[in-house]
Amino acid sequence: MTREPHETFNIYDYFLGDRIAEGIGDRRALLTDSGETPYLQVHEAAGRFAYLLRQEGVEAGDRVLVALPDGEDYVAALFGILRLGAVVVMVNPHLAAEQVAYFFDYTTPRVALVAAEASSEFERAGHAARHAPRLLAVGAPELRDRLGAAPSDVPVHPTRASDPAIFLFSGGTTGHPKAVVQSHRSFANTTELYGKRVLGLGPEDVTISVPKLYFGYATGTNLFFPFSVGATSSLFPERCTADTLFRKIRSFRPTVLVNVPTMVNNLVSHGSAHRQDLGSLRLATSAGEALPVELHRRWDEMFGVPLLDGLGTAEMWHIFISNRPGDVRPGTLGRPVEGFEVRACDADGHDVPTGEMGIMRVRGDSIALGYWQDRVKSAEAFRDGWYVSGDMISFDADGYVTYGGRADDMLKVSGKWLSPKELEDCLLEHPAVREAAVVGQRTAEGLVKPGAFVVLVDGAVPSEELAEQLKAWARERLEPYKYPRDVSFVDDFPRTHLGKVDRGALARRS
Fold first, then answer.
1. How far is CA 261 from CA 177, 419, 435, in A?
2. Using 50, 70 and 90 to split pLDDT, how confident is the model at 498?
């Protein structure tokens, strides 16, 4: 969806206001344990949030931080911010005060909308931060009364297509996350190209998501995409476990499941998986991390629901490489989404030969405006209309893309490059392994060798014998230099704010 940068355009209308104008305000927008919420009710609740924020001094262009559990309030608050032409800063509502203080100082929001039950951590963060926003505790009686008395007829601010709409945060596995500034145009563009054309979302669809709404992947697939076609988003505030998800699928009967590899693993490994009814689903998506081919095979055998692996980044907002319904090639990310151009390049920006790994470059109308307050990194990542990522990919002769991992995760072992993902996929094929993560470990001589951290399946017992079995398993299946020199058993992996494996933390354990 190409839009001129100076064209007046606010995604509030594109995703919500237009549904009211089309006369379908009585259609079900949200489905929660509390019941159904029609589009008109979301529209009016967003207007009340907009009025409240305007009373707090929020103007077009100001940043408003949202740290709420998934539910009606989250959706109304997000759209209320957009309605004012302000910028949404989405963060995990369960962060510790020290992490919250970082986001306060970095993004300098005027107001923070936080869950009443978690407000103490945000108050502590406000005392520690140099920039403390005005905190509004959503769900507290005082704010409920203010919202209940607020009018809902706040006009939609005439932003431009190129104006900032939402701050997303890069999912890097080390260091502080960078704020990616995304425009109104980006969200509409990917909705048209991926949400409507690839996923084929229609008004009868019901979506459900493993990641929460503060993660841009879920913001799109479980809110913006269904809202763009008058469909239904199902939301729940609880932490997503396999038991919770099976229960919500039975209750909400979704047609589209927004998934991630870790939960794919948890679902297929669950003791009652073979008794679960996923018959309402017409497809599931997977993103956020690479999906091992062995895990894809187990999903197909257990559930038979088409699983579309894909790749997206905060810098391009959402997925731009994907498998398609009826065109799934396990072990690959699929092909570039029409409307995006993707290349695999060497360090000088030249295309590498078919079958070889190269640094990913992508361009399209969903490219970010840059990183917030970081011109140097913006200049490195955004070059001549291309986003130059740290991801390694290759193309096969048919145009399907294979993911090789992050360039900064690649290991030089015995003078040769090793992708941690290749070794992780191999270990995952062992019947005792539930999850695996590989990092570089330095020997006493200063050389880098691969080390594996492994989470075992229920019933498997860590032992030196099992560690040696896993090393032998890899040696038998991969080139000799690729086997793990050390295997450590852990109960779980450290995770980033977006739930990805924190490889930096694992490396520091080595």
1. 21, 18, 10
2. low
